[in-house]
Amino acid sequence: MANKFKGLNGADVDFETTWKVLETAFKEIHTKNASALSFEELYRNAYKIVLKKKGEELYNNVAQFEANWLSGEVRNRVVKQLTAPLLLLTDGTGRSLATSAERRVAGESFLRALKESWEDHQVCMGMLTDVLMYMDRVYCTDHRQPSIFAKAMGLFRDQILRSPVRPESPDLIEVLTSIVLDQIQMHRDGERINSHLIKSNVYMLEGLYESDQEVEDEKLYLRLFEPYFLQTSAMFYREEGERLLKESDAGTYCKEAKRRIEEESDRCRSTLSEATTVKIQRVVEDELIRHKIKGLIEMDSGVQYMVDNDKLYELGLVFELEARVDARKTELTKAIQKIINEMGTEINNVAINTSQAPPTAPAAQDEHGDDKQKPGSTRQINQQTVAALKWVEDVLALKTRFDNIWKTAFASDQTVHTALERSMGEIINAFSRGSEYISLFIDENMKKGIRDKTEAEIDATLEQAITTVRYLQDKDIFETYYKKHLCKRLLLKKSQSIDVEKQMISRMKIELGNSFTLKLEAMFKDMTLSEELTSGYRKHVAQLGDADPKRVDLSVNVLTSMTWPLEAFRGASEDEREGRSNIIFPASIERIKSGFEQFYSKKHSGRKLTWQTNMGDADVKAHFPRSKNGRPMTHDINCSTYAMLILLLFNSLPTTTSLTLEEIQARTNIPENDLKRNLQSLAVAPKTRFLVKEPMSREINAGDRFTYNEGFSSKIIKIKVGVVSAGNKVEGDRERKETEKKNNDSRGFAIEAAVVRIMKQRKSLPHAQLLTETITQLSTQFKPDVNMIKKKIESLIEREYLERIEDAAVPSYKYLA
Fold it and tell me: 813 in helix, strand or coil?
């Protein structure tokens, strides 16, 4: 039966005849002879067929035509470009059968043929789509068929890419993948390739799908090319990473890794697909960084070498590489922390060894800490004090060094900064004398270090001091030492600037809180009030009309006993401390002393004054008959209160009369140790030998006799008498034990107060929670000992501040109002 139907004008339309016309036209289009065709007539023919319900036959015929054309004409043209080495690339043997240049040329020929075939197919199908537009719009839509263009693209996939080159050979797409990967490998090895040619074939793979439904994640590029590309890349970079670790230094490794990552990004942009950029970067990062970073850091030329030799650029590369794979930079921060801990431990060990070394010979020094070098004298350096200052300077230098590394190499990264701060804190808190040494460092700067410095330099010094304090866990111990040192600076007028002292207190208040600086501020208040008292007393004396020129002038510092750490003035035994309040003064001094006590009691009734004679000093005029080239001379002598009392004893004695050690002590009641040290200064020290000692020896012993030295001579009018002492600003073992004991007592009170505050607010708490809250509340002052907290809780229970809750699920306490 003839396949005929009526045309638009009523005439019969023969399908076969019409299809032959269309088929002939399609061949002309595919052979690039379409110039003579009438596309309007062709469209009308296709339109007629679809209009007469023959769309399915037309659709199938077109699909079959394209399949035949692709499998016959196009495929043969592409396959002809394949040489034996290219076919063998799929199993890896092709690389050994031809040089890279031969493979590159052959590969480019194949890629060019495939590219041209694909582009021709797209152009031709674009023209066919115009002819079959009505079929697409009506038949394909109504019957849910892919458009003819999509169908033809699928045919290219099936007839070209998925067809084997020959029986039992790999499909063409496998060969294509192998060739592209081979070209990329050549590029990685430094050879030039035709990136545009590869990119065109990648476009083809991105435009084809595994099925005709064209699901986005089923692109041939994503399913059949990209996984192999990533797999072979991983193998390549795994081997390259191992080779670089063996053959190069760490800096070179970092540079190569960075170059490879950038190179792969560029390759995706110029040669492959930008959609692969993140994936290939992850592969390179995994193989060259994530799996190798530990070995890289631990290389002989690794992070330790970079830090030792200030290789900041290379350190920056290590940081940059690890930051790509680990936001926390775990391996790098561990390595840096280890280096800081090792360097810090060395600093601590040097300080410990120095502090345990045999002490230097005692120096003639003001017991109140004045070691100012006198003209022509040789200053004896106190090795432990120097070690203390050096420890702080070394710690600050270590911090400065790693701060510079952090800013320059680690891009001021917060994670690394946190790790660095933790390590610095561990170093400082691992050193048992850290609090004392930091306070000594501030003391030295306040007395001498800020002299002749600009305001900016002083600010920098204060900031350095606060920086070290910030790391301390046991800030209460630091407070103890700081009060001692501040006490001496204020009372002995050793501070270079009271304003700078107050600036330091203000910084501490900001950093450590009001409670920390409360007593420190009270010390300054006492000094101000003392100046006002002294001025008021002098006015009071002037109003009495006592114009005696020989009257002793008095300056007084009245100190609140609970505020000032008076034990800072070289701690003595309890007996000696008791004896200091019973000193025997000459009548002229006793008169002034009693007068001030009466003046003070009128202003502040109910308050009791206790004279700290060991802390005072005096200016004395002394006459020596042969002091200046055999002629008489009067000297202004500045000495301790005790030295003044000793010298005044000889005023009322004949020149040749002597006094024994025991007689001097009986007439003055000066504590024995203080007396011996002052006599050493007055009778043994060459430049202040105002008394003659018999027998002459360095030590003061029982029975030694002392006489006024008529033969004393000196060209200096103003003479300062130092007091012979051990000279050690760093506490000795005995003093340190006393400080620790007092500190532990203070901590006990602080713990009890914290527990009571917490329980008063919470009324009842489980034991574990009470411990946690107590530790949290006290952590800004010191690191509480859990056992001490438990003991204090028991003590509070015994004193009926707390009681245990019976039958509680967990051990708990209740507050007793």
Answer: strand
Q: Hey, how many other C-beta atoms are within 10 angstroms of the C-beta on 539?
A: 9
Using alpha carbons, select from 80, 74, 222 the residue that is nearest to residue 160.
74
- One-letter identity of residue 580: R
CB 280 within 8 A of CB 227: no
Q: What is the DSSP letter of 91?
A: G
Tokens of 482: 């700081």
Between vectors from CA 500 to CA 494 and to CA 501, what angle results, nearest 5°? 60
Phi/psi at 616 (5° precision): -90, 170
* 484: nearest Cα among 539, 565, 387: 565
- The β-bridge partners of 297 are none
Beta bridge partners of 658: 707
Distance CA 417, CA 486 (A): 33
Tokens of 441: 């460092």
Whole-angstrom distance, CA of residue 628 vs CA of residue 713: 6
- Residue 369 gets which letter from DSSP? S
Q: Are 70 and 156 in contact (CB under 8 A)?
A: yes
- Quote the crossing angle between the two packed helices 15-30 and 39-51, to the nearest 10°: 140
Burial of 671 from C-beta contacts in 10 A (0-12 / 13-18 / 19+): buried
Closest CA relative to residue 193, chosen from 271, 140, 264, 117: 271
Q: Which of 719, 724, 721 is nearest to 700 (CA)?
A: 724
Contact, 268 vs 276, CB < 8 A?
Answer: yes
What phi and psi, each to the nearest 5 degrees, are found at residue 117? -65, -45
User: Which residue type occupies 592?
Assistant: I
Give me the residue label for tokens 């607010």: 761
Length of the chain: 817
Q: Residue 701 burial (CB < 10 Å; 0-12/13-18/19+)?
A: exposed
Residue 74: both structure tokens together: 């196009």
- Residue 658: in which H helix or E strand, if any? strand 658-660
Model confidence pLDDT, tens digit, residues 568-581? 665 544 445 554 55
- Phi first, then psi: what are they for 287, rounded to 5°? -80, -40
d(CA 52, CA 7): 8
Nearest to 229 by CA among 291, 159, 176: 176
State residue 326 phi and psi, 5-degree precision.
Answer: -150, 110
Angle at the Cα of 383 (from 378 to 385), degrees rounded to 5?
105
**Residue whose pair of structure tokens reads 């582009």 in the numeric block:** 119
Range list of β-strands (E), 366-494: none
Return the closest-CA partner of residue 401 out of 476, 323, 309.
309
* DSSP code string of 602-646: HHSTT------GGG-EEEEEEEEEEEETTEEEEEEEEEEHHHHHH
- In the structure, what pLDDT confidence band is assigned to residue 137 with cuts at 50, 70 and 90? very high
Backbone angles phi, psi at 393, to 5 degrees: -60, -40
- In tens, the pLDDT along 589-643 reads 888 888 888 888 888 887 888 888 888 888 898 888 876 666 788 889 999 999 9
Average pLDDT over residues 48-65: 93
Rounded to whole angstroms, how far apart are CA atoms 660 and 216?
111
Q: Which whole number is the average pLDDT over 689-695?
A: 90
Alpha carbon distance 419, 339 (integer Å) = 12
Tokens of 473: 């866990």
- Estimate to the nearest angstrom the gap between the alpha carbon of 586 and the chain centroid: 63
Alpha helices in 248-311 (DSSP H): 250-270, 277-285, 293-297, 303-308
**Closest among 120, 36, 118, 114 to 77, alpha carbons compared:** 114
